[in-house]
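Section handout, structural biology tutorial.
Before the tutorial, make sure you can parse a SMILES string by hand: atoms, branches in parentheses, ring closures as digits. In the record below the ligand is LJ64HWYM, and the chain has 320 residues. In the tutorial you will relate the predicted structure tokens back to the input. Do not try to memorize them.
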Amino acid sequence: MTVLVSQVNRLRKMKRPVVGVGCASTGDTSAALSAYCASAGIPSIVFLPANKISMAQLVQPIANGAFVLSIDTDFDGCMKLIREITSELPIYLANSLNSLRLEGQKTAAIEILQQFDWQVPDWVIVPGGNLGNIYAFYKGFKMCQELGLVDRIPRLVCAQAANANPLYLHYKSGWKDFKPMTASTTFASAIQIGDPVSIDRAVYALKKCNGIVEEASEEELMDAMAQADSTGMFICPHTGVALTALFKLRNQGVIAPTDRTVVVSTAHGLKFTQSKIDYHSKAIPDMACRFSNPPVEVKADFGAVMDVLKSYLGSKSLRS
Ligand SMILES: N[C@@H](CCOP(=O)(O)O)C(=O)O
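Predicted structure of the complex:
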């Protein structure tokens, strides 16, 4: 996002008619846009689907002084509106159909290679909603290959929530006609997108790298998130979707035990505390919440606390 906002800053200094920068968002793009615009002193305008993003996501553009429109539609409806509005008003569109976003996003691929000392991973798994990221990763890896920094590129996996899986269905149909859909509610709310703007670029990227598309049910993604958190991470539900893809592809033998695999994590878990609390309280209808860790309620009494602790420690020593 800083690449795009820096460019807008430059355009404004050249007296080009850009009054503000706008985006439709499921919560993360809007946070980044409003922060960088606030820093640069540029007005930001964000279109958000009403009641479909977390409180922690909503508060960021509000706090950063963006003009926030909470619109009674889903992300795809917001996206359609912002495209129409930005073609009428001098507002610069910041969603990932803008190639400046992709230029910034592709640096994640370069960082992966650099952090692996230019050893190419075998697989990179990326959660997919509006689908700018999956194309940007391909573009970054391809650029490094063309520059001679690496001699091959990884196979990419795009991971979608089963409730918002137009790319997955397209892949499973053998890349026949793409059918946009109305995405259903998913805990992976940032990828609750049925009509992704970068569909053509994503398909191109996946074909070029012999890529795969996987999907995760609500239970699978929440279980994966809880399992990851129990190792000391604190991931978002979208990363849970990507981890599910890893589990599935390992189980199918597609990804081998020795394959070096990167799972891309796209948001901080603290943005999604409500769904984590609901999971650990087993408060999600029709979900077993197999890895839940509910808090134990106990009286403020020494004996009562000793009892629950002894029982807890006993279960631990039995296991070890
Ligand atoms: N998940 C995104 C959706 C918009 O995607 P973009 O990459 O086109 O900005 C968000 O957080 O808003």
